[in-house]
Amino acid sequence: MLDFHLNCTTGMISIQLFGQNFNYRIVSERAIKVHKPREACEARGFTTAF
């Protein structure tokens, strides 16, 4: 199984493959503007650094 995750603290996208996490890349500026992950993370109580 393959899952993608966003670390709300660091802004890193990671891939989870068979239960192991691998950091993939930093969220792009376009994705931050369009999908607004900062606001979503802060609404859930996280302090973001990206």
Description:
With 50 residues, the protein is an alpha+beta fold. It has two helices and three strands, in the order βββαα. It has helices at residues 29-35, 37-43, and strands at 2-6, 12-17, 20-26. Strands 1-2-3 form a three-stranded antiparallel beta sheet, with no helix packed on it. A hairpin with a 5-residue loop joins β1 and β2 (12-17). It starts with a strand and ends in a 7-residue tail after the last helix.
Blueprint (SSEs and pairs):
Elements: E1 2-6, E2 12-17, E3 20-26, H1 29-35, H2 37-43
Antiparallel strand pairs: 1-2, 2-3
Q: Kindly state the mean pLDDT as a whole number? A: 91
The helix content, as a percent range, equals: 25-40%
Oligomerization category of the chains in this entry: single chain
End-to-end gap: 28 Å
How would a crystallographer describe the biggest sheet?
3 strands, antiparallel
- Helices and strands, in order, run as EEEHH
Spatial extent as radius of gyration: 11 Å
What class would the helix/strand composition place it in? alpha+beta
How many alpha or pi helices?
A: 2
The neighbouring-strand order within the major sheet is 1-2-3
Q: What is the strand content?
A: 35-45%
> Ranges with pLDDT <50 over ≥5 residues?
none
Task: Count every beta strand, where a strand is a DSSP E run of 2 or more residues.
Answer: 3
**What does the overall shape look like?**
globular
